């Protein structure tokens, strides 16, 4: 699965945007997990257009790509810069179906470093059972990484220098923190999904 496809469809599900807005939102929402470049964004937009998942329309007012009115210089409203600013992408009906399809995925590819953060960013729109499978799968993946790092440190002993040992140690601490964080998220999901106790009916004596 192309995680950028999921990210773009998810953002356009919230509101139509032009390319510059999309790029800003990708960095604002997902910058902690990964950075997307212009080089990867626009080919993805064109591919989604060809597939009929998004459509391109014109903004009602002329704007530059940063959302501001064009400066009163020699550049006219009809310039290529102005036209780029007015190209707005929006989700089609097929695009909404595709977004729902991607949200329903919970296989091993959703646990990877490459895609976990993108799925997490759209958890509010993801079915509860899918959220749980992704979180539990991610926890297993990180626990495997943690145990591998522990084994490496144990086997290496004095065979590695101080700096290499510190590199492994910081990686181990990072995985331990993520496991604790995932445990908290999983516990919160289970608590939210637990049925409330049925209220007892009071009867008159």
Detailed description of the structure:
InterPro entries: Metal_resp_DNA-bind_regulator (IPR052509), Tscrpt_reg_PadR_N (IPR005149), WH-like_DNA-bd_sf (IPR036388), WH_DNA-bd_sf (IPR036390). Keywords: Coiled coil, DNA-binding. This is DNA-binding PadR family transcriptional regulator. The protein is mainly α and 205 residues long. The protein folds into two domains: 3-69 and 78-120, Winged helix-like DNA-binding domain superfamily/Winged helix DNA-binding domain (Arc Repressor Mutant, subunit A); 128-193. The chain is 59% helix and 6% strand. It is built from eight helices and three strands. It has helices at 3-14, 19-30, 38-50, 80-85, 93-103, 116-121, 128-156, 162-193; strands at residues 17-18, 54-58, 87-91. Helix 7 packs antiparallel against helix 8. It starts with a helix and ends in a 12-residue tail after the last helix.
Quick gist of this model?
With 205 residues, the protein is mostly helical. It is 59% helix and 6% strand.
Measured as a percent range, the helix fraction is 55-70%
Strand content: 5-15%
Q: Which topology of the largest domain does CATH recognise?
A: Arc Repressor Mutant, subunit A
Overall 3D shape: globular
Strand element count: 3
- Succession of helices and strands: HEHHEHEHHHH
* Domain unit count: 2
Q: Identify low-pLDDT runs.
A: 61-85
- Which radius of gyration do the C-alpha atoms yield? 23 Å
Class based on secondary structure composition and strand pairing: mainly alpha
* Largest sheet, strands/sense/barrel: 3 strands, antiparallel
Strand order of the largest sheet: 1-3-2
Q: How far apart lie the N and C ends?
A: 63 Å
């Amino acid at each position: 699965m192309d995680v950028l496809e999921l990210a773009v469809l998810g953002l356009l599900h919230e509101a139509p945007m032009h390319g510059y807005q999309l790029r800003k939102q990708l960095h604002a929402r997902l910058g902690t997990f990964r950075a997307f470049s212009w080089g990867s964004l626009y080919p993805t937009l064109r591919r989604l257009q060809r597939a009929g998942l998004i459509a391109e329309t014109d903004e009602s007012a002329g704007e530059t790509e940063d959302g501001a009115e064009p400066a009163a210089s020699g550049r006219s409203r009809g310039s290529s810069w102005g036209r780029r600013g007015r190209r707005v992408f929006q989700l089609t009906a097929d695009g909404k179906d595709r977004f729902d399809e991607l949200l329903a995925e919970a296989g091993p590819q959703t646990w990877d470093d490459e895609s976990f953060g993108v799925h997490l960013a759209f958890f509010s729109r993801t079915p509860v059972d899918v959220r749980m499978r992704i979180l539990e799968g991610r926890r297993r993946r990180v626990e495997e990484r943690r145990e591998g790092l522990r084994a490496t440190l144990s086997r290496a002993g004095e065979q590695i220098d101080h700096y290499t040992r510190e590199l492994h140690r910081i990686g181990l601490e990072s995985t331990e923190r993520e496991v604790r964080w995932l445990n908290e998220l999983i516990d919160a999901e289970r608590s939210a999904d637990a049925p409330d106790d049925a209220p007892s009916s009071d009867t008159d004596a």
